[in-house]
Amino acid sequence: MKKTMVLMLFLLVSAISLQAQSKFEFWSQGHVDMLADFKGGVYATIGGPSLGLVQSDRIKVGIHFAPSLRFKSNAPEGQEIIPLLGFGVFAMNPANKIRYNLINYYDAPSKSWSTAFGLGYIFNGTSK
User: Can you tell me the distance from the alpha carbon of 25 to that of 58, in angstroms, rounded to the nearest whole number?
Assistant: First the structure.
């Protein structure tokens, strides 16, 4: 978990330093993401606030808050489906409307962190 957080901070700092001379851009977009972790959890995310840090014609990279539902069949009784808020990084290709996600979730009932990887589809937003 610590290695993942260090990697995310490194990506964030390097992205900000690469874009130090350019402006930040906010854009509206809708997306649906499906993610999975290594503990048997599957996450469904629809929308959530994002901040793009690096943008070009071929790729957009940024940070993302991910309100999600976690589906986990081996969870304790009553916790098979729970809402979680995740935070992580994303990269997307506007040309083919695919979004790649690396998101960390904190599960308060079990007091543990999970890192999930997944793909998403962008159904509106800028297409530059």
Answer: 16
